[in-house]
Amino acid sequence: MNPVYTIMTPTKIPVGKVDKSINKQFIKDCKEYPNEDLKGMAQSGLINPKFISKMDLHLIKSIQDKYIRPYLFDILMKLFIDSTHYSPLKRDVIQNYHKHINIRELWLVEYDNESYFKSHTHVSLPSHYSFSWYLKCDTNRKVIFISENKEYEVIVSEGDILMFPGWLSHRAESSNSICCSGNFEINVSM
Fold it and tell me: Rounded to two decimals, what is the model's pTM?
């Protein structure tokens, strides 16, 4: 029988910025699509949300046209390139290949001081990533990632967007904030 070795490599969690001028309108547009399955959300680890939208906001044409295509696609692609383990001199290698991004889920959650998200993961497939876009939050909003039984705090501010592997466990503590999260897949054609 062959031995199996587990080698952990550093996981990069790049942080980007989305133009904050769209946040209020995006929140307003998303609130037109409430989630009716709050029990299902509680089973996923989301406790007492002030509001949660449907999980498939990415399928709504007005959301695609006003927010996903003009803002999210470019930022997520840039964060994907920033998260690769290529040396700075080799970045142009991946930048020159054709890349396709496919958002699988997109949802919005409004938290208050009674709301939080227990430790959870999103999608556990190699080419699938997740992101969190902080539309409204305190300056020092903490997001906790868990790897090898250790916790790592990432501090975010309003307008920040984090990209991370979908399999990476994370949680969100109580805080008055509004966050848009999603899952996506990137295919690079050589």
Answer: 0.87
